[in-house]
Amino acid sequence: MRIPKHIAIIPDGNRRWAQERGLSKEQGYDQGLNPGLRLYRLCKQVGIKEITFYGFTQDNTKRPPVQVQAFQKACVDAVQLLAQEEDANLLVIGNTQSPLFPKQLLQYTQRTKMGKGIIKINFLVNYGWEWDLNFLKKITSDNIRTVGQVHEHLFSSDISRIDLIIRWGGRRRLSGLLPVQSVYADFYVVDDYWPDYKDQHLHDALAWYQQQDITLGG
Question: How far apart are CA 165 and CA 182, in angstroms?
Fold first, then answer.
């Protein structure tokens, strides 16, 4: 079985999940903590080496303040949960200069652990693709000619190329997820909302991935 080295997770549908249960939208965010932990443990079991979780974007912070506070807290809780209970190599990537970046996560903006067999976990927190590619304003096409050279100059340069992106919630868009690293990624959509995560979702995505023709443009 061909296992992707790096998968990215877009955990969408929390607000819709809450509304369908008569809850306020912000009450859906903390329902994503347990699914994330279960997914991480299953990825470790099947041999995936790197996982990127899409926490929240700079565009997401335009939502009502009560929702912003809720998803900020959910990201902090998720990172701290993994740091305290799991043997993960954590890295948080996002605009730390913004007041909307949770200060509790500043300590995770450098890799936390290294070692053989430890999964790399990336959290995108207050992330924006324009922010990540900001260096392009300072260069010309003569300076950089390949994707690899672009990668070296990103704020997210420590994150490797993505093999498989899985999005929950039924939406079929990348929402600005790591545009350079996702350039050749396969994209799999789960119609269920993220709080309704099941291990079978990952198994189905991996089975689908086996059938894709990996050419990297060649």
Answer: 8
Yes or no: is domain 6-210 CATH 3.40.1180.10? yes
Position 148 pLDDT exceeds 80: no
Which SS3 state, helix, strand or coil, does residue 41 take?
helix
Q: Are 108 and 76 in contact (CB under 8 A)?
A: no
Is pLDDT of 63 > 60?
Answer: yes
Alpha-carbon distance of 154 to 3, in angstroms, equals: 26
The pLDDT tens digits of the residues spanning 157-212 come to 999 999 999 999 999 999 999 999 999 999 999 999 999 999 999 999 999 999 99
Distances (CA, A) of 17 to 10, 95, 186, 193: 15, 28, 26, 6
What's the pLDDT tens digit per position in 12-35? 999 999 999 999 999 999 999 999
Domain segments of the chain: what residues?
6-210
Q: What is the full DSSP assignment across 48-109?
A: --EEEEEEEETGGGGS-HHHHHHHHHHHHHHHHHHHHHS-EEEEEES-TTSTTS-GGGGGGS
3-state secondary structure of 174: coil
